[in-house]
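[Discussion] Sanity-checking designs against the backbone

I'm trying to build intuition for which residues belong where. Below is a structure token string of 371 positions. I'd appreciate it if someone posts a full sequence so I can compare it with mine line by line.
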């Protein structure tokens, strides 16, 4: 059987590439003839990617490139290295649906798989139907795995788009419970399965084998890792309280220039392998990122997940499913907002739950591959 995988992997985003590599690795373990379709959708590519070079004619983009271009190049080099090490078969760069269609007509696959990271959020993907396998060659089966919509509600134009583009899918798997209701509103009548993000398909040991050690100063042997995506006043309150109570230095993974409040040392141009190392070796992880949360659970860290101002469903779902919802700091929390938790006891249950969820997810993929 020949399998083609389409996912969002081209962005310089840790979660996007790590989930893509995990789903690819799982499919590859089931069928060696598995190819990652290297669809580099221009809006998801970094400013240094050749698919976006024309944008440097814009003064604002050119200024950003002049200021941060060197740092972005270093980061992209580390992302490319990770792909070359862990994706065994990948196509050349493809940038349009027509190119995807031509490639698949020439090579013909038996099974197409798409998933996971916000691949079905109509507004995130700019209503690009290629993310719904519109280009698949005739006779092939089409399935999704843990496809994420990434939000609680979708407007009417998004529902119409989902309905139109999910016609012909042989099996549908989503990542969040909320996606089931959204697909029902889009008048999708077939059964919809819910499965965990692909990063949970690989073991803690497997992820550790992918780490690259980052030299740290002696003062940072024990540290709090801060990985934040949004400007959120509640996040600052958490950092202030933890700084006061822990006495530990704060390290940040960031692309932000200049001094950052509460942060003692920042690291830019970090690649996926280094990202894993920073989380795995932290004393605490403070994050509003889904994948920052996911890897904190995998590595059994003292996690403080701060609810996002807009998109909470992704983090809430995985914390509820793993029994770690008490790690979440909501926007309603006021004084003494950091929860006092018995992490070892919580992770005994969490570990078991992750194993159960990953086994269930792998069975789904095995059934689809061997159907």
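Best answer:
Here's mine. Compare freely.
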């Amino acid at each position: 059987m020949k399998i083609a995988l389409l996912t969002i992997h081209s962005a310089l985003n840790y979660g996007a590439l790590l989930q893509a590599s995990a789903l690819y690795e799982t499919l590859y373990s089931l069928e060696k003839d598995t190819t990652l379709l290297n669809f580099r959708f221009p809006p998801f590519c970094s400013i240094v990617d050749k698919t976006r070079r024309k944008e440097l004619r814009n003064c604002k983009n050119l200024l950003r490139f002049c200021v941060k271009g060197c740092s972005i190049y270093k980061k992209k080099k580390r992302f490319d290295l990770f792909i070359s090490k862990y994706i065994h078969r990948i196509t050349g760069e493809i940038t349009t649906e027509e190119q995807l269609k031509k490639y698949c007509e020439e090579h013909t696959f038996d099974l197409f798989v798409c998933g996971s990271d916000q691949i079905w959020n109509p507004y995130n993907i700019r209503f690009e139907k290629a993310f719904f396998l519109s280009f698949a060659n005739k006779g092939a089966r089409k399935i999704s795995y843990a496809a994420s919509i990434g939000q609680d509600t979708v407007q009417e134009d998004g529902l119409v788009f989902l309905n139109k583009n999910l016609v012909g899918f042989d099996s549908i798997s989503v990542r969040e419970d909320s996606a089931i209701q959204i697909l029902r509103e889009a008048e999708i009548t077939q059964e919809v399965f819910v499965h965990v993000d692909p990063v949970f398909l690989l073991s803690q040991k497997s992820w550790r084998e992918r780490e690259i050690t980052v030299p740290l100063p002696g003062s940072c042997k024990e540290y709090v890792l801060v990985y934040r995506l949004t400007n959120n006043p509640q996040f600052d309150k958490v950092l202030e309280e933890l700084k006061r109570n822990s006495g530990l230095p704060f390290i940040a993974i960031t692309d932000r220039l200049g001094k950052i409040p509460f942060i003692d040392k920042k690291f830019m141009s970090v690649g996926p392998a280094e990202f894993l190392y920073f989380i795995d070796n932290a004393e605490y992880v403070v994050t509003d990122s889904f994948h920052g949360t996911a890897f904190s659970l995998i590595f059994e860290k003292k996690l403080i997940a701060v609810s996002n101002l807009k998109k909470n469903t992704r983090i809430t779902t995985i914390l509820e499913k793993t029994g770690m919802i008490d790690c979440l700091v909501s926007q309603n929390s006021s004084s003494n907002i950091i929860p006092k938790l018995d992490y070892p006891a919580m992770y005994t249950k969490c570990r078991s739950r992750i194993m159960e969820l990953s086994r269930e997810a792998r069975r789904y993929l095995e059934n689809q591959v061997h159907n």
